[in-house]
Specification:
single chain, 167 residues, alpha/beta, Rossmann fold, six-stranded parallel sheet, 6 helices, 6 strands
Length: 167
């Protein structure tokens, strides 16, 4: 099955991590590949304590808007290749491609290899793709799409990101 969490609201990664926690609690092996991100977020510390969740980052910082730096595309492509191998193998039952939709939107990745990964993944593997601006082709390939919309956000009043809540 393929799940997509997209939209401009807060909570796409959080929803995917909740699914990872549930799957790990059921004894499933989970692989989380984070595109764009390369910082030490609070959730990483918690996830490292769970033996059946593996998390890798394929970025050097965190940017959602703006231009990629030299090397960002190479990191993203190497990450996608790694995830494609994991999706074709037998080790993981849940694979999360965190912020892959943003990586596609800002041209860190090409769409064709991502669609190939979706087609070639083992049928018993649950794939979860997060990030705003999911391409139409990804939405069409998905079995479940949740669009998370912002109705109101405290960022608009100047609240900055808080440790343990946003990161």
């Amino acid at each position: 099955m393929i799940q997509v969490y997209t939209g401009n609201g807060k909570g796409k990664t959080t929803a995917a991590l909740g699914l990872a926690l549930r799957a790990a609690g059921a004894g499933k092996k989970v692989y989380i590949g984070q595109f764009i991100k390369g910082l030490d977020y609070s959730e990483i510390k918690a996830l490292k304590k769970l033996k059946n969740i593996k998390l890798e980052q394929f970025g050097r910082g965190c940017f959602i808007k703006g231009e990629p730096r030299p090397g960002d595309r190479e990191l993203a492509c190497a990450g996608l290749e790694k995830i494609a191998r994991a999706a074709a193998g037998n080790e993981f039952e849940v694979i999360i491609l965190d912020e892959i939709n943003v990586a596609l939107d800002i041209k860190l990745l090409e769409l064709k290899p991502v669609l190939r990964l979706l087609r070639n993944a083992r049928r018993r593997t649950e794939l979860v793709l997060t990030g705003r601006n999911a391409p139409k082709q990804v939405l069409a390939a998905a079995d479940l799409v949740s669009e998370i919309q912002e109705v109101k956000h405290y960022y608009r009043k100047g609240q900055t990101a808080r440790r343990g809540i946003e990161y």
